[in-house]
């Protein structure tokens, strides 16, 4: 009998954590996935645009670029194999000025360098043919972008975990972690506090990942990155949607701008905007309510590319929060994947800054972390052509 209760404990059952747990279990390891909430994927994984990103925006060679492109291909394949609904509707990034058209050209060049398939620059006349209500002097069409049912993917990943005899424990927040005999002793709180021993530990707690890391005995405080939280609100469009593609403006600081996304039923949702929460805000203090008073700001942003948006068509929907590793105006940051080389604790992997394109990247991240913890392969490192983007 093993001296350990589990080979690997994964903290966090969002899309990334569940993908890691399923990939480790598929390698024949005894796995427990711990989730603080009452359901898997209740926070970042449930509060987003449910977009399959193509991989356009990220500096070439960065982890976001590599995991997004690989993860997108894996995700479409997984959904085909498991019967999850998705729609590869394509995305138009629209330019409404000469300066934005120049930026669009740079995004096209970057996407091409990143190996993104199905990119096409189209002129104003073609934009009008495809989307008659848009006002744009040019657009970049990404044929590989789509929308999907993220909750169904999460459930299929849970099925993979359970098929390989892995376990998930809900309402089990991590209170503390001790080092023990080359492994870890994990103390959980919640309704049924317990203690679990494991050879390896993966911290994929999303918004909570820095806080969890600080509760791991021996974790150097300086190795835990500072985290900024950026809230994004969504408004839904009442009535019939005028769009057949996803519609994006050129990117803004902290996000991709107030864009129009379609759900699988064809309804349109606008967002997210970017609201930087006060420094020191903790995940348990986030107010996810959407203030109806934000609607005029949304209307102004939307009318840059849809001038005839009727008054009163926007209704508050929901919001999400991005776990960022840089603050306002500080530019691009990459995923932060940490192993023993970073923090000196063998058997521990931390994942920080798992914001977009984390959902698209989840299956690729799962395979990479599983290979690291099960097969002692090194975690991928960024090899950026540029330091910023």
Automatic annotation (TrEMBL):
Cofactor: FAD
Keyword Flavoprotein: yes
Molecular functions (GO terms): (S)-2-hydroxyglutarate dehydrogenase activity
Domain of life: Bacteria
Assigned keywords, A-Z: FAD, Flavoprotein, Oxidoreductase
Pfam families: DAO
Residue ranges occupied by any FAD dependent oxidoreductase domain in the UniProt entry: 7-371
InterPro entries from the UniProt entry: FAD-dep_OxRdtase, FAD/NAD-bd_sf
Family designation: Belongs to the L2HGDH family.
Protein name per Swiss-Prot or TrEMBL: NAD binding site:FAD dependent oxidoreductase
Organism: Roseivivax marinus
């Amino acid at each position: 009998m093993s001296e350990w209760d589990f080979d690997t404990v994964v903290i966090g059952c969002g899309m990334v954590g569940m993908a890691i747990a399923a990939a480790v279990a598929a390698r024949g390891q005894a796995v427990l996935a711990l989730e603080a909430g009452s359901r898997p994927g209740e926070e970042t994984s449930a509060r987003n645009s449910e977009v399959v990103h193509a991989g356009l925006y990220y500096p070439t060679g960065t982890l976001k670029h590599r995991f997004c492109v690989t993860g997108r291909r894996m995700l479409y394949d997984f959904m085909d194999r498991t019967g999850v609904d998705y729609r590869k509707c394509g995305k138009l990034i629209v330019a409404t000025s000469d300066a934005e058209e120049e930026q669009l050209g740079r995004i096209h060049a970057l996407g091409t360098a990143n190996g993104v398939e199905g990119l096409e620059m189209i002129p104003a006349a073609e934009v009008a043919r495809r989307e008659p209500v848009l006002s744009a002097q040019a657009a970049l069409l990404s044929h590989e972008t789509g929308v999907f049912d993220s909750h169904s993917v999460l459930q299929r990943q849970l099925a993979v975990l359970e098929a390989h005899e892995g376990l998930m424990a809900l309402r089990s927040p991590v209170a503390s972690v001790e080092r023990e005999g080359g492994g870890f002793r994990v103390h959980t709180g919640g309704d049924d506090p317990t203690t679990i021993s494991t050879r390896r530990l993966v911290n994929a707690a999303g918004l909570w990942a820095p806080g969890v890391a600080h509760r791991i005995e021996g974790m150097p405080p300086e190795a835990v990155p500072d985290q900024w939280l950026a809230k994004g609100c969504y408004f839904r469009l009442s009535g019939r949607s005028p769009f057949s593609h996803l519609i994006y403006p050129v990117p803004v600081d902290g996000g991709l701008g107030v864009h129009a996304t379609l759900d699988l039923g064809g309804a349109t949702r606008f967002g997210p905007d970017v609201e930087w929460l006060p420094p020191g805000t903790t995940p348990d203090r986030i107010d996810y309510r959407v203030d109806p008073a934000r609607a005029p700001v949304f209307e102004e942003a939307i009318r840059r590319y849809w001038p005839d948006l009727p008054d009163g068509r926007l209704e508050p929907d929901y919001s999400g929060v991005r776990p960022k590793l840089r603050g306002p105006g500080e530019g691009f940051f990459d995923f932060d994947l940490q192993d023993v080389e970073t923090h000196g604790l063998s058997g521990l992997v931390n994942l920080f800054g798992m914001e977009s394109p984390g959902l698209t990247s989840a299956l690729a991240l799962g395979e990479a972390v599983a290979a690291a913890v099960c097969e002692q392969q090194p975690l991928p490192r960024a090899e950026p052509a540029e330091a910023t983007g």
